Amino acid sequence: MRRLFGSVRARATLGATLVVAVALVAAGTAVLLSLRSNLMDQAGTQAERTARNVAAQLASGRSYGELDLDDDTPIQVVDDNGTLVAASSELERISGTGTAAVTPGPAAGTTAPGTDDDDDDSGDDDGGGDDRRGDDDGSLEPGEIQEHADFTDGSATVDGESHDYRFAAVEVETEDRGTLTVHAGASLDAEQSAVNTATTVMLIGFPLLLGVVAGVTWLVTRRALRPVEGIRREMATITASEDLARRVPQPDTHDEVARLARTTNETLAALESSVERQRRFVADASHELRSPIASLRTQLEVAAAHPELLDLGGAVEDTVRLQQLAADLLLLARLDAGERPGDGRVDLAALAGEAVEGRTGVTVTAEGPVEVTGSRAQLGRVLSNLLDNARRHARSAVTVTVRRDGDRAVVEVADDGHGVAPADRERIFERFVRLDEARSRDDGGAGLGLAIARDVAARHGGTLTVREAPAGGALFALRLPLA
Fold it and tell me: What is the pTM (predicted TM-score) of this model?
């Protein structure tokens, strides 16, 4: 179960089903309430119509015995005293109208025939009614029927059948019998039947609809996530095979999955390039280390066998070269690992002056102190590498210029040599690259100086580029943010 709901598809299906279920329950409840309200209003209208029909007969002066009462409808006529004076003949029981009587009382017998004596009694009642109508309480005039009916819910038994009813009560003012109240009911069977039917349909239909929603959501999410599964399988294969040349399938769409696949392939390409660069670096480093180590070993073996043949100067030179190469490799490893430069303030003018000490044919021009933030040792290494490179290629002179250019500090190292061809101006910053493959390693170095210089510049937020110098040689420009 835990594994099932750990699936995006299962969670999406469950979420969609729950949302639809809540919406269906809310909509179903609203429909049932609206249906019941409408049917109750219809029953109330029917009951009111029946009550007003009887009230109109009473207002016209018709006697109780002559009233046209529907025997299938519960009807009561009650006088001012709450006495039942007329009722439908089949009425056997009633509740919800204020009086439970179903058989007219004695007053009904005296008023129903409509004799002269009864008329006199009615006249007495009419006199009492006139006193009541004289009050300022909104009383009805003789022959007037109440404008708004009162509604109640109850039940009744008519001709042996019991049902729930909606009752309407309407008052009518008569000339000779005072105020009479007519209670008439309309059956709620239709309302109850319709509500029960709608409820049954919802109880059956809603689960089926939810099943359809869940199934459709499951299929749609499965189709939508199929490319993701393809990406996962390919990534698992790449991990198992360690073949970074493979790429994940990229769907022919413009959605998030396609962007994920595209980004994944870009990441794989960058990783492949990084790994390949690392392999090439290790291979080149091994090759570069092999020569001085082999030379040093040969000299030591010869010295061991023939001490008089020991070339001490050559052994020291190979050892120094090996030490410099190891230092370069260690610095590159630290830069690749993301080592952050220091936050000290470094005066490039003073640093350039220190770097040219002991070098012949090098001149320094500075506008004054030019300070940047970073590692003094690493920036000194950059200047030293640039000067070594310029010395190897210059005919006679090397010029170092330190100046400000807006918010940047600029150090330019120019020589009067042959320069660098435009096609090679980026390649020379690659590791272990030497443009003159024919020259000796002792003269040309291992090809790491310019690579280290550019990496250090980048770590300090700057750039290192090369272009043609005014004297025709190469001009290396180091640009760093001012402190």
Answer: 0.50
